[in-house]
Hints:
The protein is an alpha+beta fold. It is built from seven helices and four strands; from the N terminus they run E-H-H-E-H-H-E-H-H-E-H.
Amino acid sequence: MAVERTLSILKPDATRRNLTGAINQRFEDAGLRIVAQRRLRLTREQAQQFYAVHAERAFYDDLCDYMTSGPIVAQVLEGENAVVRNREIMGATNPANADKGTIRKDFGESVEANSAHGSDSPENAAIEVAFFFAQTDIAD
Ligand code: UDP
Ligand code: MG
């Protein structure tokens, strides 16, 4: 299995509750390396663009409101099978359905405020990493 990179976001519910370190510990304990990290506040336009794939979904406007409601931490995680591995560590989209010991089960507040984002494929990971980071921002 090749070393991959994936885009992770610690969402506004996580930064609001000061969970950045606790969540990062989960990634590092699982062998994923944080090779780039930046705290920022998304503009409405950026949130809409990032989640454009969901533009037709009923939850899209609320999701864009939520993602701009506070700072986020965007990060690049690197490791073996990082895309799938990160999604395992995060757990199911809805914290109510997530396995014990996952980030979303342990920290998520709701299906919307579920603490973390992770890319869903290597192809999307490349697009999402480039959304936030230049190659020169990433140091492995
Ligand atoms: N979301 C929501 N309501 C839903 C489904 C998703 O508010 O019914 C939000 C949630 O924050 C989720 C994001 O939209 O993380 C993107 O949805 P997706 O289906 O891509 O889930 P993910 O890939 O984040 O698990
Ligand atoms: Mg998704």
